[in-house]
Amino acid sequence: MTAHxxxxxxxxxxxxxxxxxxxxxxxxxxxxxxxxxxxxVAEADARELMVSLWYPAKSTGKQRAQxxxxxxxxLLLKEGGITxxxxxxxxxxxxxxxxxTKPAGRKRSVPLIVLSPGFTKPRSVLTALAEDLASHxxxxxxxxxxxxxxxxxxxDGRVTTCLACEVPDRTETFWKKLDQGRAADVSFVLxxxxxxxxxxxxxxxxxxxxxxxxxxxxGGASTLAAMATDTRxxxxxxxxxxxxxxxxxxxxxxxxxxxxxxSNFSPGMPSARSWEREWQHLTGWKxxxxxxxxxxxxxxxxxxxxxxxNLDIGADLxxxxxxxxxxxxxxxxxxxxxxxxxxxxxxxxxxxYPEVTFCAVETHTCx
Length: 367
Hints:
Layout: E1 4-5, E2 24-33, E3 47-56, H1 70-79, E4 98-99, E5 110-116, H2 127-135, E6 139-144, E7 152-153, E8 159-160, H3 172-194, E9 206-216, H4 218-229, E10 233-239, E11 256-261, H5 262-265, H6 273-279, E12 286-291, H7 301-308, E13 311-312, H8 319-338, E14 356-360, E15 365-366
Parallel strand pairs: 2-4, 5-6, 5-9, 9-10, 10-11, 11-12
Antiparallel strand pairs: 1-13, 2-3, 3-6, 7-8, 12-14, 14-15
Helix pairs in contact: 2-8, 3-4
């Protein structure tokens, strides 16, 4: 997040309200995977992860969830070189989910969506999307990939930072390592959420036959990697993420959606070559959408928060509109492929969303 600012800042940012009808609950899980070393800390005896869960709740609670801690807010702002606002500003962001409220739903009836954030970004920057999906009846698990985020806070008060950021040469080998590590994180989290006696009391609601994944940036690339190694993931979305590790032929016959910036991911652009490479190996339902006026951060909370505190991130598309688009198309994808509901939004251009165009890869055109 690098931006210009004005001196006029509101008291506290807030996330847009979810569009679904169900109240949203949230909780967090601390998990340890003792079956493998941490990819970034060789001497660690386990891979430690924090996971945020959002879910349809029986009722609203008394306590709204904290968006992030003051330290997480500080480190995120420092990463972007932003010194013009108080460092704890983002910790005061008003969310729409309530902590530890009772989940709603029948046993093994609720689809699960895994979310993975971009490199250096905490899992909290996908909260607006997660809250919206939960309000429409999904369980959402957003994974903090430890040492790949500016700040990860553990229950004992430890705060880890981005050790992966200290790697001097981020070559193709680096990004493959990151993708493969994240794929392992995802599989471990799925194991934990679908096994008997899960740490989360609401885990029995999850339908293990309806699990999917979406990610932004590096999280989008790791969605492909995770799907290639874990067949429990029935479908996936790459949101504005360059892919790094080519997928094997015919491994992904499951549905996949590319959603990205028109300025970066239109077919034929050099920056879109990785998507074109993967496109050839996706043999199931697939769709390639680009959004006019969006920048990289437009698909996350970063754009929403920046707009509210008068930080210019260079987007022509207002942040509330880009989030509306992100929510609408991701939800349509999941409703179509997890609930088998017809979704005209995915069949072609839509009058309510003229910023979104459908791309024909073979002819390098979008309309």
